[in-house]
Amino acid sequence: MISWNYSNARAQLSTIMDQASAGHPVEITRRGKEPTVIISKASYEAYKKAEYEQICQKSNEKN
User: Fold this and answer.
1) pLDDT bracket for residue 6 (50, 70, 90)
2) Chain centroid to CA 30
3) End-to-end CA distance of the chain, in Å?
4) How many whole angstroms separate alpha carbon 8 and alpha carbon 51?
5) Confidence at 7, pLDDT banded by 50, 70, 90
6) Is 14 left (phi over 0), alpha (psi -120 to 50) or beta?
7) Could you tell me whether strands 26-29 and 36-38 are parallel, antiparallel, or unpaired per DSSP bridges?
8) Residue 59: what pLDDT?
9) CA distance 56 to 1
10) What is the pLDDT of residues 17-58, one digit of tens each?
């Protein structure tokens, strides 16, 4: 995973968006704060779909 500090990330937002869109998650760190990860919309949607399917599967196992 590519990692940027907050100050550099602000100056290079377009580059970071290009990296994320190309399928490379980007971590942004800030001193004293929890890091953030930027991913493409397609990756996010795939994650949400997998999460939903897992919740449905667990729900079906309980019944």
Assistant:
1) very high
2) 16
3) 39
4) 32
5) very high
6) alpha
7) antiparallel
8) 85
9) 30
10) 999 999 999 999 999 999 999 999 999 999 999 999 999 998
Instruction: Dig out the tokens for 59 from the structure.
Output: 């729900």
3, two tokens: 């990692």
Q: For residues 61 and 17, give the distance between their C-alpha atoms in angstroms, rounded to a whole number.
A: 39
Residue spans of the domains in the chain: they are 2-62
3-state secondary structure the chain: CEEEEHHHHHHCHHHHHHHHHCCCCEEEECCCCCCEEECCHHHHHHHHHHHHHHHHHHHHHHC
What residue type is 7 in one-letter code?
S
Structure tokens at 19: 């990296």
Instruction: Look up the pTM and report it.
Output: 0.80
Report the top-level CATH class of 2-62: alpha beta
